[in-house]
Task: structure prediction
Amino acid sequence: MHELVMKPAAATPPPGVLAGAPLQREGGVALWRQIARIVESEIAAGSPAPGGKLPTEAQFSQRFGVNRHTVRHALEELERAGLLRMEQGRGSFVAEDVLDYIVGPRTRFSEWIRRHNKEPSGKILQLRIVAASAAVAAGLGIRAGARVVLFERLGLADGVPVSLSLHHFPAARLRGLLPALQATDGITAALRRIGVHDYLRQVTRVSARLPDPQEAELLRTPRNRPLLVTEAINVDREGNVIEFGAARYPTPRVQIVFEPRA
Amino acid sequence: MHELVMKPAAATPPPGVLAGAPLQREGGVALWRQIARIVESEIAAGSPAPGGKLPTEAQFSQRFGVNRHTVRHALEELERAGLLRMEQGRGSFVAEDVLDYIVGPRTRFSEWIRRHNKEPSGKILQLRIVAASAAVAAGLGIRAGARVVLFERLGLADGVPVSLSLHHFPAARLRGLLPALQATDGITAALRRIGVHDYLRQVTRVSARLPDPQEAELLRTPRNRPLLVTEAINVDREGNVIEFGAARYPTPRVQIVFEPRA
DNA sequence: ATGCATTTGTTCGTATGTATG
DNA sequence: GCATACATACGAACAAATGCA
Result:
């Protein structure tokens, strides 16, 4: 039903992984798990493209030299994980929502989503003044206990949750930010309203962990699929730190991409 | 029937008055706070050492004469503060330093490790010629089925595993690479030996997933802690793709850091 | 592959002390 | 004095993950 095969991937080169080696029959890893891993990485790398048709089960079983049941087991696992869907009589198709989050100095949520031809939206979960914890204070370069504006938002693309972000702004340095965030939607717009017309991402730190039940529900992801967790510091043009943010993205729906000079 | 039941208290110098005295039940300070302070000071004093195992919750609760809930409350506080981590089914462990993997155009394994004042080493797991899968071929810009050198290595820092990497090199473009990799240690050295004196990282793609049993054992990480998974493309100075690599890093021991202008 | 012991994670219920109004 | 809310503490039971034989 949606067969437009627009590849946003035109810009991002394709990789895949692990696909070079044959299966290990004595490796202690079940064959269907190895197959699932391989197909997952190929999907993650964009082959076939989102919405595209996977090889038939018979083709897979020939390629890997295993029984069709083994292939089915792997595909069922991936279907449960939301990576593909299996349709009786038609075939298996790659799910269409793998979003590359391209990290750059001016990465903005709405631009990220629109680059994938989807409609960005957001839901505010928290917006209030709190005292800075030691970690937040260190990130912002202020003293612990100082007042910060805390802003938590669920980010959606075409209504599908793709990010859960926590933003900390130094209240003293950014007067009037809280009402601005309430009135506008989007951080960029709120900052502009109080006179910050540009800001740059300085460092991005990436880790991963399993979601807690709340995060899993908000992001609509299984509890055993890790989240990518990023911490970033944003500065204004004078180099003052104006935001310390932490965001969580569901894998494998979202990947983070670093391009040195894109 | 395994742990020697030596009380570390005998060997370790008494950290202040804290460890010796019992808890004060009437002092106006919550028991769990007192416990948290004691454990914190013991960790600060180096017992147990970073990465070492703390006593079990049951042992703590016996030592302090409190309920396990009370101990847990204290430990959870310290986990939030980043001093230790709790792992279901295994125990609690003193936090270790995280290795920041700084992504840049010339990121090299040994330099990464040495930057953290640790000694890099590696263990070759696979080294052979295989036919390029479609995904690998696409990454390398060659035709599927062409011969590629497949190189898998476990990377260690001071003997502790920190990375598990799979490298694919186009065999036709890089004659003599396989013996060079066998003879030298380090990819940079092997490439230099066959005339490639510099190479640059072009894109890095980051995702995360749980390890399979093999990966968990090689990287010595629990099964329920995600791996950071990266895919990267390296090119020589003329822009020819030289390597397509996929690497896995254990969280939270390793984090990936992106600095736009470092 | 199976079962068992160990350890942390989670959820009940109960009771007490303290601060507030 | 009394009701309420909250933090603290204990107890029991079970779930889930791990490691080992």
Observations:
- The two ends of chain A are 33 Å apart (CA to CA).
